[in-house]
Amino acid sequence: MKNTSKGFTIIELLVVVAIIAVLTGIVLVNVTSYINKGKDAAIKGNLSTILTNSAVYFDLPAGTFTDFCTNQYFTGPQAAITSAGGTAICQVNTNVPVGIAVCACSTLKVTPGNTFCVDSTGYKKETAAACATRCPAATGACID
What we know:
Blueprint: H1 10-58, H2 72-83, E1 88-93, E2 101-107, E3 115-119, E4 124-127, H3 131-134
Helix pairs in contact: 1-2
């Protein structure tokens, strides 16, 4: 009696495993891209929260932004930005007599070197300039 059972050869199994590995690699690259886009969205959202918080902080009895960058109105969203992989900075221009200006900026993940800046005038924009250049203490406002 002959054994005529059919099955897969080792070479066929290796080819299938190799194909699965290649497809997994392609999917992993795309997933990483989506994760970084999500982190950028979180960073931008938290910077927008800082913008809103600055208006609330200004409406407090002091009516100034003087200690905004050390207050929980900034440090709370700043911690969330840091956990998303960004680096947030905050600058306050104390030279303006009334309505002292505040500026916040952070690095982004998808395009290294790009930053997102918001200020107390309502400005929100992403550019390729560094945060130190975009958000100087002398102005307390974002600069393109």
